[in-house]
Amino acid sequence: MKYDINNLTLDEKLSLLMGVGFWRTNSCNGKLKQIFMADGPLGLRMSDPEKSPNGTLMPGTVNLANTWDKEMAYLCGKTIADECVENDVDILLAPGVNIKRSSVNGRNFEYYSEDPYLAGTLACEFINGVQDKGVGTSIKHFCANNSEYDRFNVSSEVDDRTLHEIYLKAFNIALKAKPWTVMCSYNLVNGVYASENKPLLKGILRDEMGFDGVIISDWEATRNHPRAVKATLDLTMPQVQTIEDLKKAVETGYLTIDEIDFCVQNILNLIEKTENDKKKVEYTLEQRHANSVKIGKESIVLLKNEEQILPIKKGKVAVIGDVTRRVVSTGTGSANVNTLYKTRFLSDLLNEKKTEAEYFSCENCAIYEKTVYDAKNEVEAAYDADTVLMVVRNEVEGEAYNKTTIKLPLGVEESILNVSKYNKNVIVAVISGGAVDMSAWIDKVKGVIFLGFAGEGYNEALASIVSGEISPSGKLSETFPLCIEDTYCGLYRSNPYYDMYSEGVFVGYRYFDQYEKDVLFPFGYGLSYAKFEYSDLQLEKINETEYNVSYTITNTSDVDAKEISQVYVRDVFALVSRPPKELKNYSKDFIKAGESKKITLKLDRSAFEYYSNNSKDWFVENGKFEILVGSSSRDIRLVGKIDVNLPEETQVTQYHHRYDRMLLKRFDQ
Ligand code: GLC
Predict the structure, then answer these.
(1) Which ranges constitute the DSSP H helices of 32-115?
(2) Residue 623, H or E segment
(3) What is the pLDDT of residues 122-138, one digit of tens each?
(4) Which of 238, 280, 448, 581 could form a disulfide with 22 if both were Cys (CB 3.0 to 4.6 A apart)?
(5) CB-based burial, 374-399: b 16+ in 10 Å, e otherwise
(6) Ligand 1, atom 12: nearest CA belongs to which residue?
């Protein structure tokens, strides 16, 4: 160990337990290297005046999830880390893995998914991408921070099973990448602030999940510093207190020296990690931009393609939208990135593609604050064109507030309806950080593309898809409901103090499936320019709770493309209520036109277990399970059936055979 804890005085130890300024740790009178931290999930947000304020705006985490591609997650982490190395940043305050419980949560753009398996597995690769370059990460916000409304004061009321199966699960999966730090959240969890919640921070995160790094508070999340230290929150950020509170806590015996030293040692270990020889800049700014575009292309989701209006091959195309000049592909708050990149006109980019289409720009139409002149402009452009491509953006969203609707702004909806009156071949590309209620206009247009926040190169990515240079391959990582009223959260919390997670584990598609509700677009949905057939499902048993699942996908079209196949597991009959299906593995594969590919994925014990509130542990209940292979959560192509038959002593209760027989009769029909 380079840094010996015995070389520090008590005052120095106590000062190490909080930041210096907003972004650094204490040097303890020059004895230690200061750690420098910076946001965020979408790129480097330089908030330190000493450093250049610019970064490369990568696609939003919403887009990273829509790629369903671990290599893209790794590449994103690696690209941002490259910029961290260049700017001497030791720890990147990312990834954010909070589950998308509410469709209006302001920060959904910087989170992955409503599904913890997808979120955790992609975050794991993002962390590897960052830390393989010698830069640390801070997986956040631990935990159950699923709404921005009043986030400093709300208590998330969540039962143990729901916590483990949904809200802790992504963290648990991502801990495989050994993030150097975990950032605790602002909110209370079951009535105790996360920052001082010892059962949560020590009992679950450290003892149960095996985390051995540094727990950092979210900025100003620590409400009582001595209590936070006692809960093993190592580092309070930023510097908001003096060490007097801690000194008094030691004098009164509330805090022991051992408790202080536990946190100090964790921070010394972290400082050592930041001093490594992996830190090498390998990308130019142009290469980082190219990486952003590459991920952006993989993330775009084609939602509607009536009469195969896409890709556009010929004819006059009016490009309408006021968002095509400025980079608007992000949300506000700590995830914001100040990029210097100047996007080019979409019409110019499209005219450079090898198609016979001719694009003209009506791009200075202010879709929001439309003047009658603008409206005339829009309509005449539409009237003259064979096809209209509209690029529209949702209301501004971001940290510290929730959205007020999941519909597009009225002015935008009006534009779409207006244009579609004068042209029957309208394609709408939507820039938004999350689910959109399209009910007012989707039947009036032929094509819908979900751009999400596709990064600073969103126009280049969109041009590749629209021109058919590549086939769209993204799929939704969040359900798009028909309307916000159809969701279990709705728009507002039922009371100011508590967020009752009374839907339990039935979150996202788990909810819509359980209650057999229609949705606009289901979890895992996305169209391609190609067509894929699934066949030949094989289930190779390794042991009672481990299987190799293999199947063949054939590209029956004349277009090379990528397909995201998803493997869900259904516990046919459990003694607790379980979701109708749960994602337990997935694969994204490039399959050339006319060719087939055999895919083999593993299901381990975690694919079958649930968390028992009874035994306070993970548990696999004997009985029948279905293995469902689908192109989306509601487009299941292959079904296999297995029997789990573990020794009786592993079961928590005696099986009620009479129910089983009755149900199995139905099951086996
Ligand atoms: C913010 C965010 C957190 C961010 C931190 C530093 O309030 O909640 O995600 O990393 O403070 O900016």
Answers:
(1) 61-67, 70-86
(2) strand 623-632
(3) 999 999 999 999 999 99
(4) 238
(5) bbebbbebbeebebbbbbbbbeebbb
(6) 334
Integer Cα distance of 245 and 14 in angstroms: 10
With b meaning 16 or more CB within 10 Å and e meaning fewer, what string describes 490-515? ebebeeeeebebebbbbbbbbbbbbe
Both tokens assigned to 187:
């909110």
Q: Is 218 a catalytic residue?
A: yes
- The amino acid occupying position 428 is V
472-515 pLDDT, tens digit per residue, is 999 999 999 999 999 999 888 878 899 999 999 999 999 999 99
Ligand 1 pocket, Cβ-based, cut-off 6 angstroms: 39-40, 93, 140, 218-219, 334
Backbone phi and psi for residue 425, each to the nearest 5 degrees, phi listed first: -115, 70
The whole-angstrom separation of Cα 370 and Cα 353 is: 31
- The alpha carbon of residue 21 and the mean position of all alpha carbons in its chain are separated, in whole angstroms, by 30
Query: In this structure, what token pair is assigned to residue 319?
Result: 């490009």
Which of 39, 90, 115, 218 is an active site residue? 218
- pTM more than 0.90: yes
User: How many angstroms separate the alpha carbon of residue 334 from the centre of ligand 1?
Assistant: 5
